[in-house]
Design brief:
322 residues, globular
């Protein structure tokens, strides 16, 4: 009787609650989740916990070693490295969320639902369009988009400033986030679309979907009420893997000078500042390795933790795993 009651209790759990319970039972998944939360919260609350303004320079204290005043030392302009790390994490958090929402969740999921449900010419059009983007090397296409779109978006933002009288749109960094968000679309939408499309093609043949059609349910209701909830698990897993890739790509674009622009901090800009000054960079790397190790360590932690969490979620949402 005890075993039957336990089974009944388990069967009454929702899939999300069962997945959450299995997540708490996985020590590695729980550990990396805590690490990611800590890192992201540090970035979100950077204005509160940062000990100095991120653009504050002090030419009397340049290239200082770590101390109680400056936990990670100062850079060549006397700016506090720990402060800039916190603000760089905030930049990565914003870009990651923008890239995930606009690319994977909105564009990718929507196009996948439409292509898999309506099939035929609609499916062919969406799939062929995605294959055209996929034919380009991802990072090359992102660099081309970022380089070509930036001047146009900057001009558009300045035009808005002139027309509305609102100043600071360009200097606030919003333009940088828009440029990177648009440039990251090819990296995220097609893979998600293809995954969702495959799931919809399979689920669309299910009896409950056919019954909903016979009952007169609209296409919108069938897609978002009957099909989408059954595709949530693979969407979560794929998005988790994609978050690490988006974070790494943002850092790489900023390193090349195509992402976030100074004076707004970015982990990529911090790495470029240390490695892009010729013979002077060699001296900095020898005497102050923390200036490059700190931003690289943060990038490594983000990518590593997201990948581990993705592997754990794959096991959690796999019905065949125990």
């Amino acid at each position: 009787m005890i075993n039957r009651s336990e089974n009944n209790d388990k069967s009454s759990f929702s899939p999300f609650r069962l997945a959450l319970q299995r997540l708490f039972n996985k020590k590695i998944a729980l550990s990396v989740t805590v690490v990611l939360l800590i890192v992201y919260l540090m970035g979100l609350f950077a204005p509160t916990i940062a000990p100095f303004p991120y653009s504050e320079t002090n030419l009397m204290n340049t290239q200082d070693s770590p101390s109680w005043t400056h936990f990670l030392g100062t850079d060549r302009l006397g700016r506090d490295i720990f402060t800039r790390i916190l603000w760089g994490i905030q930049t990565t958090v914003i870009i990651t969320i923008v890239g995930l929402v606009t690319g994977s969740l909105i564009l990718g999921v929507t196009m996948g639902l439409i292509a898999g449900y309506f099939r035929g010419r609609v499916d062919s059009l969406i799939t062929r369009t995605g294959e055209v983007f996929a034919a380009f090397p991802d990072i090359l296409l992102i660099i081309i988009l970022a380089a070509t779109l930036r001047p146009r978006i900057v001009d558009l933002a300045r035009g808005v400033e002139n027309i509305t009288g609102i100043s600071g749109i360009v200097s606030s960094g919003i333009v940088d986030f828009v440029v990177i968000g648009v440039a990251l679309l090819p990296l995220s939408w097609f893979g998600m679309m293809r995954l969702v499309r495959g799931q919809v093609l399979s689920i669309g043949r299910s009896e409950y979907v056919q019954a909903a059609r016979i009952a007169g349910a609209s296409n919108t209701r069938i897609l978002f009420r009957h099909i989408l909830p059954n595709v949530i698990a693979p969407i979560i897993v794929t998005s988790t893997f994609g978050l690490g890739a988006v974070a790494g790509t943002e850092v790489f674009l900023s390193f090349l000078g195509l992402g976030v622009q100074p004076p707004h901090p970015s982990l990529g800009i911090m790495i470029a500042d240390v490695t892009g000054r010729g013979s002077a960079s060699v001296s900095v790397l020898k005497n102050h390795p923390e200036q490059i190790l700190a931003p690289i360590a943060v990038v490594w932690i983000l990518i590593f933790c997201w990948n581990l969490l993705g592997d754990a979620l794959t096991d959690i949402f796999n019905p065949r795993s125990k």
